Amino acid sequence: MDQFASLLPSGSIGPVHTNGPSDSLHLSWLPTSTLKQYTLVFPVTEDGKICLGMKKRGFGAGRYNGFGGKVEPGETVFEAAKRELHEEANIVATKMPHCGRIRFAFEDSPVLMDVFVYRVEAWEGDPSETEEMLPAWHTSLPPSDPSMPQLPQIPFDDMWPDDDLWFPLFLAKKSFVGRVDFNKPPVAPEGSEGKMEDGSMRRWWFAEAPVELMQSS
Ligand SMILES: COc1nc(N)nc2c1ncn2[C@H]1C[C@H](O)[C@@H](COP(=O)(O)OP(=O)(O)OP(=O)(O)O)O1
């Protein structure tokens, strides 16, 4: 279990899911020296709708994701999650349980992103476009389910590549922890435009975990 120590204090967690490719298990976790807190928030409804935002600028531009960003000095993580949701989607969360914590490292970056994931189950207002995000409703129900034929499925091909690893836990309302290390993205050819190339996932793990464990430092 020591390879997971970079995220967790001692405690019991559910079965651990790790990389498929066996050679990646020989790679070390990337070294980092600075832990930075971020939030990531997804509005969901009882009947299987989920609101994703198309990121218009900055880190992750061109991908769908939840709403969130850096925790500012003097804020709690919860306050930051509420603020970022309001700034990016124009809604105010009134019920927002903490449900996940994922750490991301990137080759040649000293920063370990410490991302706190929340599920927004009640809010005031309607999600609408902001400077940073264009919100759009999707369905988390299987395509065969006839109850919401007009909504698109969750667009994993247009999201961060780690998302389809932990979304099953998120959608099943399970709390979870994990870590993903990314290789450096390939250098974009000169003059190329559009979505930034992904770095491949170098090593990762996810597991169900009780909320208390997920909230410890
Ligand atoms: C690498 O894998 C990731 N996957 C997912 N799903 N989400 C990620 C990943 N890495 C980071 N994120 C999330 C965490 C945050 O919600 C945002 C990044 O925050 P951002 O850089 O946009 O922070 P802001 O404070 O809003 O930035 P500005 O200073 O530009 O306003 O991505």
UniProtKB/TrEMBL annotation:
Q: Which PROSITE patterns match?
A: NUDIX, NUDIX_BOX
Q: Which domain of life is it from?
A: Eukaryota
Q: What is its EC number?
A: 3.6.1.56
**Similarity field:** Belongs to the Nudix hydrolase family.
Instruction: Could you list this entry's UniProt keywords, alphabetically sorted.
Output: Hydrolase, Magnesium, Metal-binding, Nucleus
GO MF annotations, alphabetized = 8-oxo-7,8-dihydroguanosine triphosphate pyrophosphatase activity; dATP diphosphatase activity; metal ion binding
Q: Which cofactor does it need?
A: Mg(2+)
UniProt source species: Calocera cornea HHB12733
Q: Where is the protein found, in the record's own terms?
A: Nucleus
Q: What is this protein called?
A: Oxidized purine nucleoside triphosphate hydrolase
Cellular component annotations (GO), alphabetically ordered: cytoplasm; nucleus
Give any Pfam family that matches: NUDIX
Known function: Oxidized purine nucleoside triphosphate hydrolase which is a prominent sanitizer of the oxidized nucleotide pool. Catalyzes the hydrolysis of 2-oxo-dATP (2-hydroxy-dATP) into 2-oxo-dAMP. Also has a significant hydrolase activity toward 2-oxo-ATP, 8-oxo-dGTP and 8-oxo-dATP. Through the hydrolysis of oxidized purine nucleoside triphosphates, prevents their incorporation into DNA and the subsequent transversions A:T to C:G and G:C to T:A. Also catalyzes the hydrolysis of methylated purine nucleoside triphosphate preventing their integration into DNA.
